[in-house]
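Fold it.
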Amino acid sequence: AAEALWDVVRDQGRALMAGREGDPLYQI
């Protein structure tokens, strides 16, 4: 279950980071 949740988080994270690449909080 954790892996499936992480896949969703990663997909949403990619969409967010596309617009927040300059934000140090999102540098992972």
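The chain has a mean pLDDT of 74.
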